[in-house]
Write a structure and sequence with these properties.
The protein contains five helices and five strands, in the order βαβαβαβαβα. With about 140 residues, the protein is an alpha/beta fold. It has a single domain, classed as Cobalamin-binding domain (Rossmann fold), CATH 3.40.50. A five-stranded parallel beta sheet has the order 2-1-3-4-5, sandwiched between helices. Strand 4, helix 4 and strand 5 form a beta-alpha-beta unit.
């Protein structure tokens, strides 16, 4: 895996009280292996995830869910971050997200959606590209 993510930070959380945490931990390890600093805050509400973003100032925010609460929770995350001036943070969601909900998440501001079964290598490569683009835009300002 690439080390291009070295020095960049991600905040990841498992939304709600969904007991299925293994997938997000596998993703966290893949991002760490690629050189990214990962702050995993565990089970969290959208409000708790946003608070962690404010504290940690990451390049990437990842929300994982398997419980079907993704549209409400992710909508809250995207709106609150945008209103708080964090519009340059890459937002990704993963888990049991029906294909029909992907356009809604994208419209909310999520840069990528990784359904269950997504390739770790493709996730890392996509995250690397998204973070690089956001950093380039940040430097142009």
């Amino acid at each position: 895996m690439t080390s291009a993510l070295r020095g960049r930070k991600a905040v990841l959380a498992k939304l709600g009280m969904d007991a299925h945490w293994r997938g997000v931990m596998v993703v966290a390890n893949a991002l760490r292996d690629a050189g990214m600093e990962v702050v995993y805050i565990g089970h969290a509400t959208a409000t708790e995830l946003v608070a962690a973003v404010v504290e940690e100032d990451p390049a990437l925010v990842g929300a994982s869910t398997l419980s079907g609460n993704h549209l409400v929770e992710c909508g809250h995350i995207a709106t609150t971050l945008r209103e708080g001036g964090f519009d340059d943070v890459v937002l990704v969601a993963g888990g049991a997200i029906p294909p029909a909900d992907v356009p809604s998440l994208r419209a909310m501001g999520f840069d990528a959606v990784f359904p269950t079964g997504s390739s770790l290598q493709s996730m890392v490569e996509k995250v690397n590209g998204l973070v690089a683009v956001r950093e380039a835009l940040r430097h142009e300002r």
